[in-house]
User: Fold this.
Amino acid sequence: MITGVFRASYAHVFQPQAPKGDGEPKYQITMLFAKSDQASYQAICAAMNQALEDGVQKVFGGHKPARPKMPLYDGDGVMDNGEPFGEECRGCWVVRASSKVRPSVVDQDIQPILDPNGFYSGCYARASVNFFAFNQNGNRGVGCGLNNIQKIADGEPLSGRTTPEEDFGGRNVWNGPSTYGMALSPTPSGPVPPAGYGGPPQNPPGYASGTSGAGVGPVPPVGYGGPSQNPPGYASGPSGTSGAGVGPVPPAGYGGQSQNPPVPPAGYGGQFQNAPGYASGFPPAGAAPVPPATDPVTGMPLYGSVMGI
Assistant:
């Protein structure tokens, strides 16, 4: 059947919506018919009753359900869970329709509406639907299948969103210059880099100050690439420098005239010094020590000449 004009609610006609809990996603819409539209109400009731009668033999096994579930609700009453319907349902008959197949949505000229924003909860439409009996998982009654939808007029969105005309029309129409944004809006830029970013390279600790050329690494320490700095223990001055590729310069005199070692103590390498009890001069090889002269009176050893002689 083709319904009368209704207000769309919970319109999911471009993307399927899964029911609460487990269930197969479906395209669905809730149709709000004004109670003043008696023609639509009577047509819906007649179609539901006919589907119920047809289901007695085909679906319900010859017995009409005592309390069949029906897709028509009183918007001024309560839902199946006992909660009241939303404010938008007041004064309306509520019918829910769904389909596993995406319905075609067209405008008054029967041109397809492809933009999901073109059909929304709150606009006015009519639809082609079919009522059928069902018996599933102990639930028996009549359902409403959704076929195609035709949008008739715009309306206040039930999602709370406003239309562009409401936002920018009427007293909100822009009367300023067309270049206002371009004249005052700065060029978009990213985050401000740290101080010194993009200027002369900042040398890391331990490197000499100054700048380096494009593509050049950090400036090496002072003296790098100049005269060699001799390590401790090496001679300084001209004799302490090295040429390119030469290792550290050895101390002055290295490789030149031999430097004598420290001068030995007095007498070292001179005349042999005899130990006490030995005569002056070198004793002959293999000879026994020569005893010193003695005083004939006292018998004491004499060193040198006899006292008084």
User: Anything to note?
Assistant: Residues 6-157 form a domain with the OB fold (Dihydrolipoamide Acetyltransferase, E2P) fold (CATH 2.40.50.140). The longest strand covers residues 139-153. Confidence is low (pLDDT under 50) at residues 210-214, 237-246, 305-309.
